[in-house]
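Journal club prep, shared notes

We agreed each person brings one worked example of a sequence with its structure written out as tokens. Mine is ATP-dependent Clp protease adapter protein ClpS. I'm keeping it raw so we can talk through how to read the token line rather than staring at a rendered picture. Sequence first:
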Amino acid sequence: MSVPGADPAGGTAVAERPDLGSVAQTPWVTIVWDDPVNLMSYVAHVFTQYFNYSKAKAQRLMMEVHTQGKAVVSSGTREEMERDVAAMHDFGLWATLDRSE
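Then the structure, token by token:
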């Protein structure tokens, strides 16, 4: 019978732990999804109000949501993205967070 983690040569295998510093620094993103409820002008308004984006950037992101079905609207730590997702929900938008690729 083999034991998981045991070295077949009789030594002791050492499991490596992920570098917690790099895990903590992995950027997260807020994704806003297209929905059948909110007007495009309202979505752009939310982006300018909450994220303080220029009108042009807000319009570009809104069009990405509309045509692609989703857009990454912010990135940062997990806690920051949880806050942004909650804010988007408060505005009535569909939003999720995910790890950045």
